[in-house]
Design goal:
The chain has about 475 residues and is of the alpha+beta class. The chain folds into three domains: about 50-60 and about 315-470, Alpha-Beta Complex (endopeptidase fold (from Nostoc punctiforme)); about 65-215, Roll (SH3 type barrels), CATH 2.30.30.40; about 225-295, SH3 type barrels (Roll), CATH 2.30.30. The protein is about 25% helix and about 25% strand. The chain has 13 helices and 23 strands. It has helices at about 1-30, 65-75, 75-80, 80-90, 100-105, 120-125, 220-225, 300-310, 325-335, 345-350, 360-370, 415-420, 465; strands spanning about 60, 140-145, 145-150, 175-180, 185-190, 195-200, 205-210, 215, 230, 235-240, 245-250, 255-260, 265-275, 280-290, 290-295, 300, 355, 380, 385-390, 400-410, 430, 435-450, 470. The strands form six sheets. The protein has a seven-stranded antiparallel beta sheet with strand order 17-23-18-19-20-22-21. The relative contact order is 0.13.
């Protein structure tokens, strides 16, 4: 019996020791063994303040032709007949109604709980639309509150696999764009529950919550189109009608019709709300002139610095979600202040203006940017991301102003690779070569060099490596 107890205690001790070793190995793999001599490499991305860049000394007023084109594109949903809209609907950016069937059959959309959208939930969304009655609501309308235009009539997000680098939040692929209040739209099709409407906006077609839309009459349109339009110089310009309990913060890029009064320091701008029948009504707010850009707003260094100051540091928002801006919407809203029209989509923006291909070595591409680029009028592009060229730093490197989520990262860690196979981590995945890919998050509007990402032990990919084209507007 004593021999048995001795062997039993020895066996328990051995098992306990092995368990401890396994636990410590897992702990080292997940949180890293604390070894002062083996610190993880630091990632450094230099960003510049708005007063660290050189702004153009010579300015100009944007041409009337350019402003007319801006207004023509902006008011397009009101200026074309409903039947014409239907005949040409497929030519406008955005998803067709048939996309809903594609969504219904796709099991690879992930929700806010990091799990695939369940079939019965997808069916509920799709069954809320009567395709056979399309179009069932052909009217002209206006956005009455800052809102989102969606691929499907739902606020629920559609993420790709969370474990993929650069996926998950904030990349909700059902988000097409934000729409600022005062945006004209063509209302086309209501859901069965009357809570969503399929619309044509100046930028995309898609689904908008009906509560954020107002129906407009021809009288409303006549009164609204004053021929005088001002643009907010910053976000959060307060719009408050003394006769209403509904107020609104204007956003940079928003179009404000206005009337002049007796006060030379202020103007009366228009915004909207709805009545019980969802019909739009005009509200009027008094705003100081200094908060607005008018028709004579000059494209010069003083004004550009003000715009950069009001945009830099703002959080990144994919598709304009959470009333934030992504790369293309930030550039669009900045240029809209001058009534310069840019498409909403980044790949369409690069097709506007004089285009230059950027090929060859990094030095050759930088030389071409400096030779042909015009600060604040040249857009650089890498796949999926646009950047505004804003001059050069003290080392002659081109500087860019851009709303960016993050830089690609790559780590070589075999032990972590094994662990990730069993325990996926959001935004990190293992490549075919065994390396670990992720993102170094910036997550806001910043000024960086085009060489941002260089000299980080090979962990981050320099932006200049992937920039392949630029275009100069105006």
């Amino acid at each position: 019996m004593n021999l048995f107890l001795s062997n039993y205690k020895s066996m328990i001790k051995t098992i306990s020791s092995k368990a401890t070793v396994i636990f410590l190995w897992i702990l080292c793999c997940t949180v890293g063994c604390k070894n002062p001599s083996k610190k993880p490499p630091e990632i450094e991305i230099r960003t510049y303040a708005q007063n660290e860049i050189t702004y153009p000394k010579k300015g100009f007023v944007v041409s009337e032709q350019t402003k007319e084109e801006f207004l023509k594109n902006f008011f397009l949903p009101w200026d074309i007949d409903g039947e014409v809209v239907l005949d040409s609907l497929d030519s406008f950016p955005g998803k067709k109604l048939s996309y809903l069937q594609q969504y219904l059959e796709d099991d690879e959309w992930y929700g806010e709980n990091k799990k695939p959208h369940k079939k019965f939930l997808r069916e509920a969304i799709v069954n809320n639309i009567s395709n056979e009655s399309f179009p069932n609501f052909l009217k002209k309308g206006i956005v009455v509150a800052h809102t989102n235009l969606r691929r499907i009539p739902s606020h629920k997000p559609g993420f790709d696999t969370y474990s993929k680098a650069g996926e998950g939040f904030p990349f909700d692929y059902f988000q097409e764009t934000n729409l600022w209040a005062n945006t004209p739209v063509q209302l086309i099709h209501l859901t069965n529950d009357k809570q969503w409407c399929y619309v044509l906006s100046p930028y995309y077609k898609g689904w908008v919550p009906m509560k954020d839309l107002g129906i407009v009459s021809e009288v409303f349109i006549t009164n609204w189109k004053t021929g005088r339009y001002a643009m907010p110089l910053a976000d959060y310009v307060q719009l408050e009608d003394p006769t209403s309990h509904y107020a609104l913060n204007a956003r940079l890029g928003m179009v404000l019709p206005f009337d002049k009064g007796d006060d030379n320091e202020k103007v009366t701008v228009f915004y909207t709300n709805t009545n019980e029948n969802q019909e739009a009504k005009i509200l009027k707010a008094t705003v100081p002139n200094k908060q607005l850009a008018f028709n004579d707003f000059e494209f010069n260094g003083i004004h550009l610095k003000e715009l950069v100051s009001n945009l830099i540091g703002r959080p990144y928002g994919w598709g304009g979600n959470l009333e934030n801006r992504d790369c293309s919407s930030m550039i669009r809203d900045m240029m809209a202040t001058y009534q310069i029209w840019l498409p909403r989509d980044s790949k369409d923006q690069i097709e506007i203006g004089q285009q230059y291909k950027l090929t060859g070595t990094i030095d050759e591409k930088i030389a071409r940017i400096k030779e042909n680029g015009i600060p604040f009028r040249t857009i650089l592009r890498k796949k999926g991301h646009n950047m505004l060229y804003v001059g050069n730093n003290e080392n002659g490197e081109p500087l860019i102003f851009h709303a960016i989520w993050g830089l690609k990262t790559t780590y070589d860690n075999k032990e972590l690779s094994k662990f990730l196979e069993q325990y996926p981590i959001e935004g990190i995945h293992q490549g075919e070569d065994g390396s670990i890919s992720g993102r170094h998050i910036l997550g806001e509007a910043v000024i960086t060099s085009v060489l941002a990402g260089k000299d980080n032990h090979g962990i981050t990919v320099p932006l200049m490596d992937e920039i392949y084209v630029m275009t100069t507007i105006l």
